[in-house]
Design a protein that fits this description.
Number of domains: 2
Shape: globular
Number of strands: 21
CATH topology of the largest domain: Rossmann fold
Bound molecules: cytidine-5'-triphosphate
Structural class: alpha/beta
Length: 398
């Protein structure tokens, strides 16, 4: 529920703008106050009158509207809300945000705000996939902008693929997560997830079978308890959850740098399957097979152990450091040894022998190793493991 919450909704100019009308209704049903802002193009798709009627509020449209400035300046407008939501976030608006342009009311509010910003991108699939948009997405994620969607689907333009704005219930859920007053409100948690890819040459890499499902579920569960989550993910096969700050990386070294940049944090959860080794010197051009060439030999270098580094921080160590142990035999003994070797507070251990079906599957059976000993949890859905773990983390930080 969102009673007492104030959302500043910036409506961008795309065909998906019509969904913003339903979004306003659903947010108000949950008790939120919605202050609408429309870009010039948005007014071509839905009328300010409809937006004002549904929100029960004045629609802000113009940066140079002196009446508005006299009543409430744009700086104040950008900070009065608890959360800024941009839906639909067009390619143009995202490009403005990524470069810091402020040439209309919406972009100026986004530059001036000190509040969290959640965007629901919506655009044609080619525009979404364009290198420029992809660069902007990376920049915005790095700036801490929260994303919900886009989804895959049929578009108004007749094409199919990613770019379709998230459905309204999904946006409402992401808003709830971003505004949650749960036991983790005000706490920052870093979650690493997914595999890492270690390049051999520009086209080949070494990877592992982690899907990123458990890490994504943990990030989602922590966010649902109100945590501010930095989700640092390798190339996973499941999408990141909505409402968390997503930082995408490929290699262990990139993951380490992203973790360092995201610190400080109240808790660190290392759910990523980080490659222990990388190729010492990846080839800068593609390795060629020639008639005379022998089978290549690869020489490896050890990757930084991110978990051990965070756990061993002399200054600014997160209060709770949680690691994972994927074992195939003697799970408790190996995981208990790993806990002390890495210096972390807890280890979530599981048996990943192929016969268990855990790696890549929907269920997990874990043992939680703490200072007090080993605690076996029954087999349950990864989402349930995540919510139990999130609750335990909240208790530990209370
Ligand atoms: N981890 C990490 N950085 C690495 C390797 C692992 O942060 N370079 C983290 C993982 O995210 C996980 C935990 O350490 O939380 C367990 O990793 P694992 O690879 O199982 O540990 P190892 O030390 O490699 O132990 P083993 O060789 O026995 O598997």
């Amino acid at each position: 529920m969102l009673s007492g919450k104030h959302v500043l909704l910036i409506i961008g100019g795309g065909i998906a703008a019509f969904k913003s009308l339903d979004l306003i209704r659903r947010l108000r049903e949950q008790g939120a106050k919605v202050t609408p802002v429309m870009t010039g193009a948005a007014q071509e798709f839905v009328t300010p009158l409809s937006v004002s009627a549904l929100s029960g509020e004045k629609v802000f449209r113009d940066l140079f509207d002196l009446t508005d400035e006299a009543e409430m300046g744009h700086i104040e407008l950008s900070r009065a809300a608890d959360l800024i939501v941009v839906a639909p976030a067009t390619a143009d608006l995202m490009a403005k945000m990524a470069t810091g342009l402020a040439n209309d009311l919406g972009s100026t509010l986004l530059l001036a705000t000190d509040k969290r910003v959640l965007i629901a991108p919506a655009m044609n699939v080619r525009m979404w996939e364009h290198a420029a948009t992809q660069r902007n997405i990376a920049t915005l994620s790095g700036d801490g902008i929260l994303f919900v969607g886009p989804g895959n689907g049929e578009m108004a333009c007749g094409e199919y693929g990613p770019g379709r704005m998230a459905e309204v219930p999904e946006i409402v859920a992401a808003i709830n997560a971003a505004l949650a007053d749960g036991p983790m409100a005000g706490r920052h948690v870093i979650v690493t997830s997914g595999p890492t890819h270690e390049p051999i040459d520009p086209v080949r890499y070494i990877a592992n079978r982690s899907s990123g499902a458990q890490g994504a579920a943990i990030a989602r569960a922590l966010s649902a308890l109100g945590a501010d989550v930095s989700f640092i993910t390798g190339p996973a096969s499941v999408p990141p959850p909505a409402g968390v700050r997503v930082i995408r990386v490929e290699t262990a070294q990139e993951m380490q740098a992203a973790v360092e940049a995201a610190l400080p944090a109240d808790a660190f959860v290392g759910a990523a399957a980080v490659a222990d080794w990388r190729i010492e010197t990846p080839h800068t051009s593609k390795m060629k097979k020639t008639a005379k060439s022998a089978v290549p030999s690869l020489s490896f270098a050890e990757n930084p152990d991110i978990l051990a580094q965070v756990a061993g921080m002399a200054k600014g160590r997160p209060r709770l450091v949680v690691g994972f142990a994927a074992e195939t035999d003697d799970v408790v003994a190996h995981a208990t040894a790993k806990r002390s070797r890495k210096g972390c507070d807890w280890i979530v251990a599981n048996d990943v022998s192929p016969s268990t079906g855990i790696m890549g599957g929907a269920e997990n059976e874990v043992v939680l190793i703490t200072q007090e000993g080993a605690e076996s949890w029954p087999k349950m859905a990864k989402a349930e493991v995540a919510s139990r773990l999130a609750t335990r983390i909240a208790e530990a930080l209370a």
